[in-house]
Design a protein that fits this description.
Layout (H helix, E strand, L loop, with lengths): L5 E4 L21 E10 L6 H8 L6 E3 H13 L3 E11 L2 E10 L2 E6 L7 H11 L6 E3 L3 H16 L6 E7 L6 E7 L5 E7 L2 H4 L2 H6 L10 H18 L6 E2 L3 E2 L12 E6 L1 E2 L5 E8 L6 H8 L9 H17 L6 E9 L4 E9 L5 E8 L3 H10 L10 H13 L2 H4 L9 E8 L4 E8 L1
Parallel strand pairs: 1-4, 2-5, 6-9, 10-13, 15-17, 18-20
Antiparallel strand pairs: 2-3, 4-5, 6-7, 8-9, 11-14, 12-13, 16-17, 19-20
Helix pairs in contact: 3-4
Protein backbone atom coordinates (compact mmCIF):
# COMPACT_ATOMS: atom_id res chain seq x y z
CA UNK A 1 0.00 0.00 0.00
CA UNK A 2 1.47 3.30 -1.05
CA UNK A 3 1.86 6.21 1.30
CA UNK A 4 -0.36 9.21 0.88
CA UNK A 5 1.82 12.20 0.01
CA UNK A 6 1.27 15.53 1.66
CA UNK A 7 1.16 19.13 0.56
CA UNK A 8 2.35 22.03 2.65
CA UNK A 9 1.80 25.70 1.88
CA UNK A 10 4.35 28.23 3.03
CA UNK A 11 3.49 31.80 2.16
CA UNK A 12 6.27 34.35 2.22
CA UNK A 13 3.94 37.15 1.25
CA UNK A 14 0.26 37.79 1.11
CA UNK A 15 -0.94 36.96 -2.41
CA UNK A 16 -3.41 39.79 -2.37
CA UNK A 17 -0.56 42.26 -2.08
CA UNK A 18 0.28 41.49 -5.69
CA UNK A 19 -3.00 42.88 -6.87
CA UNK A 20 -3.21 46.56 -7.78
CA UNK A 21 -5.15 48.53 -5.23
CA UNK A 22 -5.44 48.55 -1.49
CA UNK A 23 -4.65 45.45 0.51
CA UNK A 24 -7.78 46.11 2.50
CA UNK A 25 -9.85 45.50 -0.63
CA UNK A 26 -8.54 41.93 -1.18
CA UNK A 27 -10.47 38.68 -0.96
CA UNK A 28 -9.63 34.93 -1.04
CA UNK A 29 -10.30 34.97 -4.80
CA UNK A 30 -7.66 37.63 -5.50
CA UNK A 31 -5.24 36.93 -8.34
CA UNK A 32 -2.04 38.38 -9.70
CA UNK A 33 0.09 37.99 -12.78
CA UNK A 34 2.22 34.86 -12.61
CA UNK A 35 5.70 36.05 -13.57
CA UNK A 36 7.79 32.93 -12.98
CA UNK A 37 7.49 29.29 -11.86
CA UNK A 38 10.48 27.51 -10.43
CA UNK A 39 11.14 24.15 -8.78
CA UNK A 40 13.88 22.53 -6.75
CA UNK A 41 14.63 19.06 -5.40
CA UNK A 42 14.54 17.53 -8.87
CA UNK A 43 16.63 14.48 -9.75
CA UNK A 44 15.37 13.14 -13.07
CA UNK A 45 12.74 15.65 -14.17
CA UNK A 46 13.44 19.14 -15.47
CA UNK A 47 11.98 22.41 -14.23
CA UNK A 48 10.20 22.90 -17.55
CA UNK A 49 8.52 19.50 -17.19
CA UNK A 50 7.32 20.34 -13.69
CA UNK A 51 5.85 23.63 -14.92
CA UNK A 52 4.07 21.84 -17.77
CA UNK A 53 2.63 19.20 -15.42
CA UNK A 54 1.46 21.85 -12.94
CA UNK A 55 -0.80 23.46 -15.54
CA UNK A 56 0.31 26.95 -14.56
CA UNK A 57 0.80 29.47 -17.34
CA UNK A 58 3.45 32.17 -16.72
CA UNK A 59 2.02 35.49 -17.82
CA UNK A 60 -1.50 34.53 -16.85
CA UNK A 61 -3.48 35.33 -13.72
CA UNK A 62 -3.15 33.04 -10.70
CA UNK A 63 -4.57 33.02 -7.21
CA UNK A 64 -4.12 30.99 -4.07
CA UNK A 65 -6.59 28.34 -5.27
CA UNK A 66 -4.72 28.03 -8.58
CA UNK A 67 -1.44 27.38 -6.78
CA UNK A 68 -3.03 24.77 -4.56
CA UNK A 69 -4.64 23.11 -7.59
CA UNK A 70 -1.26 23.05 -9.34
CA UNK A 71 0.36 21.36 -6.33
CA UNK A 72 -2.50 18.83 -6.22
CA UNK A 73 -2.02 18.14 -9.90
CA UNK A 74 1.69 17.46 -9.43
CA UNK A 75 0.94 14.99 -6.64
CA UNK A 76 -1.74 13.25 -8.69
CA UNK A 77 0.81 12.38 -11.36
CA UNK A 78 2.40 9.95 -8.92
CA UNK A 79 5.85 11.30 -9.77
CA UNK A 80 6.24 13.14 -6.47
CA UNK A 81 6.24 11.88 -2.90
CA UNK A 82 5.94 15.40 -1.49
CA UNK A 83 5.15 18.82 -2.90
CA UNK A 84 5.54 22.11 -1.04
CA UNK A 85 5.39 25.57 -2.52
CA UNK A 86 5.84 29.16 -1.60
CA UNK A 87 5.28 32.43 -3.46
CA UNK A 88 6.52 35.95 -3.20
CA UNK A 89 5.91 39.21 -4.96
CA UNK A 90 8.30 40.40 -7.59
CA UNK A 91 7.78 43.15 -10.17
CA UNK A 92 4.10 43.42 -9.30
CA UNK A 93 3.63 39.73 -9.95
CA UNK A 94 4.13 36.31 -8.46
CA UNK A 95 7.22 34.15 -8.30
CA UNK A 96 6.17 30.61 -7.33
CA UNK A 97 8.65 27.92 -6.27
CA UNK A 98 7.70 24.27 -5.94
CA UNK A 99 9.83 22.28 -3.51
CA UNK A 100 9.43 18.66 -4.54
CA UNK A 101 10.66 15.21 -3.65
CA UNK A 102 10.46 12.79 -6.54
CA UNK A 103 8.80 9.46 -5.83
CA UNK A 104 10.70 6.23 -6.34
CA UNK A 105 10.18 4.64 -9.72
CA UNK A 106 10.40 1.11 -11.04
CA UNK A 107 10.96 -0.37 -14.52
CA UNK A 108 8.03 -0.79 -16.88
CA UNK A 109 7.45 -4.45 -17.73
CA UNK A 110 5.38 -5.68 -20.69
CA UNK A 111 3.87 -9.08 -19.98
CA UNK A 112 1.76 -10.40 -22.85
CA UNK A 113 2.28 -7.92 -25.70
CA UNK A 114 4.54 -10.03 -27.95
CA UNK A 115 3.52 -8.27 -31.14
CA UNK A 116 6.01 -5.47 -30.48
CA UNK A 117 9.48 -5.01 -29.05
CA UNK A 118 10.13 -3.29 -25.75
CA UNK A 119 11.60 -0.40 -27.71
CA UNK A 120 8.40 0.11 -29.70
CA UNK A 121 6.23 -0.08 -26.59
CA UNK A 122 8.47 2.33 -24.69
CA UNK A 123 8.38 4.76 -27.62
CA UNK A 124 4.57 4.69 -27.61
CA UNK A 125 4.57 5.75 -23.95
CA UNK A 126 7.24 8.38 -24.53
CA UNK A 127 5.15 9.93 -27.31
CA UNK A 128 2.52 10.75 -24.67
CA UNK A 129 4.86 11.30 -21.72
CA UNK A 130 8.06 12.98 -22.98
CA UNK A 131 9.80 12.62 -19.60
CA UNK A 132 9.36 8.82 -19.63
CA UNK A 133 12.69 7.01 -19.26
CA UNK A 134 11.55 3.41 -18.96
CA UNK A 135 10.53 3.78 -15.32
CA UNK A 136 7.25 4.73 -13.66
CA UNK A 137 6.00 5.40 -10.12
CA UNK A 138 3.98 3.01 -8.02
CA UNK A 139 0.67 4.63 -9.00
CA UNK A 140 -0.82 7.89 -10.20
CA UNK A 141 -2.05 9.63 -13.32
CA UNK A 142 1.12 9.03 -15.34
CA UNK A 143 0.80 5.25 -14.90
CA UNK A 144 -2.78 5.40 -16.16
CA UNK A 145 -1.64 7.60 -19.04
CA UNK A 146 1.08 5.10 -19.92
CA UNK A 147 -1.53 2.31 -20.04
CA UNK A 148 -3.76 4.49 -22.25
CA UNK A 149 -0.83 5.18 -24.56
CA UNK A 150 -0.24 1.45 -24.95
CA UNK A 151 -3.93 0.80 -25.61
CA UNK A 152 -3.96 3.50 -28.30
CA UNK A 153 -0.78 2.09 -29.84
CA UNK A 154 -2.31 -1.39 -30.02
CA UNK A 155 -5.52 0.02 -31.50
CA UNK A 156 -3.53 1.85 -34.17
CA UNK A 157 -2.19 -1.55 -35.22
CA UNK A 158 -5.60 -3.22 -35.30
CA UNK A 159 -5.52 -4.70 -31.79
CA UNK A 160 -8.45 -3.68 -29.60
CA UNK A 161 -7.40 -4.42 -26.04
CA UNK A 162 -7.51 -2.53 -22.77
CA UNK A 163 -4.13 -2.49 -21.06
CA UNK A 164 -4.09 -2.95 -17.29
CA UNK A 165 -1.25 -2.36 -14.88
CA UNK A 166 -0.13 -3.60 -11.48
CA UNK A 167 3.00 -3.59 -9.35
CA UNK A 168 4.60 -7.04 -9.03
CA UNK A 169 7.94 -8.51 -7.97
CA UNK A 170 10.68 -8.22 -10.57
CA UNK A 171 11.16 -11.73 -12.03
CA UNK A 172 14.73 -11.06 -13.21
CA UNK A 173 16.16 -8.80 -10.47
CA UNK A 174 15.49 -7.39 -7.04
CA UNK A 175 12.68 -4.92 -6.39
CA UNK A 176 9.41 -4.47 -8.25
CA UNK A 177 8.18 -3.61 -11.73
CA UNK A 178 5.14 -1.83 -13.14
CA UNK A 179 3.61 -4.60 -15.21
CA UNK A 180 1.38 -3.91 -18.23
CA UNK A 181 -0.93 -6.72 -19.21
CA UNK A 182 -3.96 -7.29 -21.43
CA UNK A 183 -6.81 -9.46 -20.20
CA UNK A 184 -8.23 -12.21 -22.35
CA UNK A 185 -5.19 -12.62 -24.58
CA UNK A 186 -5.66 -15.60 -26.91
CA UNK A 187 -1.99 -16.29 -27.69
CA UNK A 188 -0.56 -19.56 -26.41
CA UNK A 189 3.02 -20.85 -26.35
CA UNK A 190 3.55 -23.58 -28.94
CA UNK A 191 7.23 -24.17 -28.19
CA UNK A 192 10.37 -22.58 -26.79
CA UNK A 193 13.71 -22.68 -28.54
CA UNK A 194 17.02 -21.45 -27.10
CA UNK A 195 19.96 -20.00 -28.96
CA UNK A 196 22.17 -22.27 -26.82
CA UNK A 197 21.79 -25.70 -28.43
CA UNK A 198 22.75 -27.46 -25.18
CA UNK A 199 19.49 -26.27 -23.61
CA UNK A 200 17.45 -27.58 -26.52
CA UNK A 201 18.95 -31.04 -25.93
CA UNK A 202 18.84 -30.90 -22.11
CA UNK A 203 16.37 -33.48 -20.82
CA UNK A 204 15.85 -31.61 -17.55
CA UNK A 205 15.09 -28.32 -19.32
CA UNK A 206 12.82 -29.93 -21.90
CA UNK A 207 10.86 -31.78 -19.23
CA UNK A 208 10.38 -28.55 -17.32
CA UNK A 209 9.02 -26.83 -20.43
CA UNK A 210 5.70 -28.59 -19.85
CA UNK A 211 5.05 -25.74 -17.40
CA UNK A 212 4.87 -23.37 -20.38
CA UNK A 213 3.92 -25.24 -23.55
CA UNK A 214 0.30 -24.81 -24.48
CA UNK A 215 -0.20 -22.16 -21.78
CA UNK A 216 -1.21 -18.52 -22.45
CA UNK A 217 1.74 -16.40 -23.53
CA UNK A 218 3.19 -14.54 -20.55
CA UNK A 219 6.61 -12.98 -20.44
CA UNK A 220 6.39 -13.13 -16.67
CA UNK A 221 5.93 -16.90 -16.76
CA UNK A 222 8.81 -17.26 -19.24
CA UNK A 223 11.16 -15.06 -17.19
CA UNK A 224 10.32 -16.98 -14.01
CA UNK A 225 11.03 -20.23 -15.87
CA UNK A 226 14.40 -18.88 -16.98
CA UNK A 227 15.23 -17.74 -13.44
CA UNK A 228 14.25 -21.04 -11.84
CA UNK A 229 15.32 -23.63 -14.42
CA UNK A 230 17.88 -22.08 -16.76
CA UNK A 231 19.83 -19.48 -14.80
CA UNK A 232 21.09 -22.05 -12.21
CA UNK A 233 22.71 -24.03 -15.04
CA UNK A 234 24.86 -21.06 -15.99
CA UNK A 235 25.44 -19.90 -12.43
CA UNK A 236 26.84 -23.28 -11.46
CA UNK A 237 29.38 -23.12 -14.30
CA UNK A 238 30.59 -19.65 -13.37
CA UNK A 239 28.65 -17.76 -16.06
CA UNK A 240 27.56 -15.27 -13.45
CA UNK A 241 26.54 -12.56 -15.90
CA UNK A 242 24.76 -14.71 -18.44
CA UNK A 243 22.00 -12.76 -20.23
CA UNK A 244 18.80 -14.75 -20.69
CA UNK A 245 16.26 -13.33 -23.11
CA UNK A 246 14.20 -11.30 -23.54
CA UNK A 247 11.88 -13.77 -25.29
CA UNK A 248 11.15 -13.16 -28.96
CA UNK A 249 8.28 -14.29 -31.17
CA UNK A 250 9.69 -15.33 -34.54
CA UNK A 251 7.21 -16.02 -37.30
CA UNK A 252 7.48 -16.61 -41.04
CA UNK A 253 4.92 -15.66 -43.63
CA UNK A 254 2.87 -12.54 -44.29
CA UNK A 255 3.70 -10.02 -41.51
CA UNK A 256 0.38 -8.22 -42.10
CA UNK A 257 -1.69 -11.20 -41.08
CA UNK A 258 -2.91 -11.77 -37.54
CA UNK A 259 -0.63 -13.80 -35.30
CA UNK A 260 -1.64 -17.46 -34.97
CA UNK A 261 -3.00 -18.47 -31.59
CA UNK A 262 -0.12 -20.93 -31.06
CA UNK A 263 3.17 -19.05 -31.28
CA UNK A 264 6.81 -20.20 -31.17
CA UNK A 265 9.04 -18.38 -28.71
CA UNK A 266 12.78 -17.93 -29.15
CA UNK A 267 15.07 -17.23 -26.17
CA UNK A 268 18.45 -15.65 -27.01
CA UNK A 269 21.18 -16.62 -24.54
CA UNK A 270 24.46 -14.75 -24.09
CA UNK A 271 26.55 -16.73 -21.56
CA UNK A 272 29.36 -14.18 -21.24
CA UNK A 273 32.62 -15.00 -19.45
CA UNK A 274 33.35 -17.62 -16.79
CA UNK A 275 34.33 -15.95 -13.50
CA UNK A 276 36.74 -17.34 -10.94
CA UNK A 277 36.66 -16.81 -7.19
CA UNK A 278 39.08 -14.18 -5.89
CA UNK A 279 38.08 -14.07 -2.23
CA UNK A 280 36.03 -12.29 0.40
CA UNK A 281 36.64 -9.53 2.95
CA UNK A 282 34.53 -9.48 6.12
CA UNK A 283 33.74 -6.53 8.37
CA UNK A 284 31.56 -6.02 11.43
CA UNK A 285 32.10 -9.56 12.70
CA UNK A 286 33.29 -10.37 16.23
CA UNK A 287 31.37 -13.50 17.26
CA UNK A 288 32.78 -15.45 14.30
CA UNK A 289 36.29 -14.90 13.00
CA UNK A 290 36.95 -14.05 9.37
CA UNK A 291 38.74 -17.40 9.00
CA UNK A 292 35.67 -19.24 10.30
CA UNK A 293 33.34 -17.26 8.03
CA UNK A 294 35.50 -17.89 4.96
CA UNK A 295 35.60 -21.59 5.74
CA UNK A 296 31.82 -21.62 6.21
CA UNK A 297 31.34 -19.91 2.85
CA UNK A 298 33.25 -22.79 1.30
CA UNK A 299 34.70 -21.36 -1.94
CA UNK A 300 38.40 -21.66 -2.77
CA UNK A 301 40.47 -18.94 -4.42
CA UNK A 302 41.01 -19.40 -8.19
CA UNK A 303 38.32 -22.02 -8.61
CA UNK A 304 35.31 -21.40 -10.84
CA UNK A 305 32.90 -19.12 -8.99
CA UNK A 306 29.88 -21.39 -8.67
CA UNK A 307 26.99 -18.96 -8.21
CA UNK A 308 24.72 -21.60 -6.70
CA UNK A 309 27.39 -22.68 -4.22
CA UNK A 310 27.90 -19.03 -3.33
CA UNK A 311 24.20 -18.53 -2.52
CA UNK A 312 24.26 -21.68 -0.41
CA UNK A 313 27.37 -20.34 1.33
CA UNK A 314 25.67 -17.09 2.37
CA UNK A 315 22.85 -19.16 3.83
CA UNK A 316 25.34 -21.31 5.78
CA UNK A 317 26.84 -18.14 7.26
CA UNK A 318 23.37 -17.03 8.42
CA UNK A 319 22.74 -20.49 9.87
CA UNK A 320 26.07 -20.42 11.69
CA UNK A 321 25.03 -17.24 13.47
CA UNK A 322 21.55 -18.63 14.21
CA UNK A 323 23.23 -21.75 15.61
CA UNK A 324 24.76 -19.44 18.24
CA UNK A 325 21.47 -17.68 19.00
CA UNK A 326 22.03 -14.69 16.72
CA UNK A 327 18.65 -15.00 15.02
CA UNK A 328 18.62 -11.56 13.42
CA UNK A 329 22.20 -11.23 12.19
CA UNK A 330 22.27 -9.41 8.85
CA UNK A 331 24.65 -10.39 6.05
CA UNK A 332 25.22 -7.74 3.38
CA UNK A 333 27.41 -9.12 0.56
CA UNK A 334 28.54 -6.67 -2.15
CA UNK A 335 29.97 -8.17 -5.35
CA UNK A 336 33.14 -6.80 -6.93
CA UNK A 337 33.48 -8.02 -10.51
CA UNK A 338 36.80 -7.57 -12.33
CA UNK A 339 35.96 -7.84 -16.02
CA UNK A 340 39.60 -7.57 -17.08
CA UNK A 341 40.59 -10.76 -15.22
CA UNK A 342 37.10 -12.29 -15.04
CA UNK A 343 37.31 -12.69 -11.29
CA UNK A 344 34.79 -12.10 -8.52
CA UNK A 345 35.40 -10.92 -4.98
CA UNK A 346 33.01 -9.88 -2.23
CA UNK A 347 33.03 -7.31 0.55
CA UNK A 348 30.64 -8.48 3.26
CA UNK A 349 29.35 -6.29 6.06
CA UNK A 350 27.84 -8.14 9.01
CA UNK A 351 25.52 -6.74 11.67
CA UNK A 352 25.57 -9.43 14.33
CA UNK A 353 22.85 -7.92 16.55
CA UNK A 354 22.43 -9.90 19.80
CA UNK A 355 21.94 -13.50 20.94
CA UNK A 356 18.38 -14.57 21.83
CA UNK A 357 17.27 -16.83 24.68
CA UNK A 358 14.18 -19.02 24.82
CA UNK A 359 11.28 -17.58 26.82
CA UNK A 360 8.06 -19.48 26.09
CA UNK A 361 6.21 -21.73 23.68
CA UNK A 362 2.59 -21.57 22.49
CA UNK A 363 1.11 -24.81 21.11
CA UNK A 364 -2.20 -25.16 19.26
CA UNK A 365 -3.91 -28.18 17.73
CA UNK A 366 -2.78 -30.85 20.22
CA UNK A 367 -4.56 -32.63 23.03
CA UNK A 368 -3.51 -31.89 26.60
CA UNK A 369 -1.69 -35.22 26.85
CA UNK A 370 0.14 -34.78 23.56
CA UNK A 371 1.13 -31.21 24.48
CA UNK A 372 2.62 -32.48 27.75
CA UNK A 373 4.72 -35.06 25.91
CA UNK A 374 5.93 -32.41 23.48
CA UNK A 375 6.92 -30.05 26.28
CA UNK A 376 8.76 -32.89 28.03
CA UNK A 377 10.76 -33.49 24.83
CA UNK A 378 11.39 -29.78 24.18
CA UNK A 379 15.19 -29.20 24.06
CA UNK A 380 15.32 -25.66 25.53
CA UNK A 381 14.82 -24.85 29.20
CA UNK A 382 13.56 -21.32 29.76
CA UNK A 383 16.44 -18.83 29.54
CA UNK A 384 18.67 -21.09 27.45
CA UNK A 385 20.43 -19.73 24.40
CA UNK A 386 18.15 -20.46 21.44
CA UNK A 387 20.02 -22.62 18.92
CA UNK A 388 18.04 -22.49 15.68
CA UNK A 389 19.82 -25.57 14.35
CA UNK A 390 18.55 -27.63 17.29
CA UNK A 391 15.08 -26.13 16.79
CA UNK A 392 15.02 -27.17 13.13
CA UNK A 393 16.18 -30.67 14.05
CA UNK A 394 13.28 -30.84 16.50
CA UNK A 395 10.85 -29.80 13.74
CA UNK A 396 12.23 -32.53 11.48
CA UNK A 397 11.70 -35.08 14.25
CA UNK A 398 8.07 -33.91 14.57
CA UNK A 399 7.52 -34.54 10.88
CA UNK A 400 9.45 -37.79 10.40
CA UNK A 401 10.02 -39.45 13.79
CA UNK A 402 7.05 -38.30 15.84
CA UNK A 403 7.00 -41.50 17.89
CA UNK A 404 10.25 -40.37 19.55
CA UNK A 405 8.28 -37.44 20.98
CA UNK A 406 4.74 -38.74 21.43
CA UNK A 407 5.49 -42.44 22.00
CA UNK A 408 2.40 -44.60 21.48
CA UNK A 409 -0.03 -41.72 22.00
CA UNK A 410 -2.52 -41.38 19.13
CA UNK A 411 -1.46 -38.07 17.64
CA UNK A 412 -2.68 -37.10 14.16
CA UNK A 413 -1.51 -34.08 12.19
CA UNK A 414 -0.38 -33.41 8.64
CA UNK A 415 1.92 -30.46 9.16
CA UNK A 416 3.28 -28.11 11.78
CA UNK A 417 3.19 -24.37 11.30
CA UNK A 418 6.00 -22.70 13.19
CA UNK A 419 6.96 -19.11 13.96
CA UNK A 420 9.63 -17.39 16.03
CA UNK A 421 8.70 -14.12 17.73
CA UNK A 422 11.69 -12.17 18.97
CA UNK A 423 11.72 -9.42 21.58
CA UNK A 424 14.78 -7.27 20.88
CA UNK A 425 14.36 -5.28 24.07
CA UNK A 426 14.60 -8.38 26.27
CA UNK A 427 16.72 -10.53 23.98
CA UNK A 428 14.17 -13.36 24.11
CA UNK A 429 12.31 -15.49 21.61
CA UNK A 430 8.87 -17.12 21.82
CA UNK A 431 8.03 -20.19 19.76
CA UNK A 432 4.62 -20.77 18.21
CA UNK A 433 3.71 -24.28 16.97
CA UNK A 434 0.40 -24.91 15.17
CA UNK A 435 -0.49 -28.58 14.47
CA UNK A 436 -2.91 -29.21 11.62
Amino acid sequence: MSRIPCICLVAFAVLAACVAGSAAQTSPAATATLREVRSDGLKTLTEAQVVAMSGLQPGGQAGRDDLQAAADKLLQTGLFAHVKYNFQTRNEGLLVTFHVEEAQRMPAYFDNLPWFTDGELNDSIRAKLPFYDGTLPNAGAVVDQAADALSQFLAAHGLQAAVEHQVIGNPVADGTVQQFHIEGGSLHIAQLEFSDASLNSSRAVQQSLSELKGKPYSRMAIDLFLAEHVKPIYQKQGYLRAKLGPPEVRLTGDPNKKLPEQIPVYIPITPGAVYRWKGVEWSGNSVLSSITLTGTLGLKVDEVADGMALEAGWERVREEYAHRGYLEAKIDPVAKYDDSTHTLAYAVRIEEDQPYHFRSMVITGLSTAAEKRLRDAWPFPQGDLFDKTVFEEFLTKLETHRSEIFGESPVHFENVGHWLQTDAGKGTVDVLLDFK
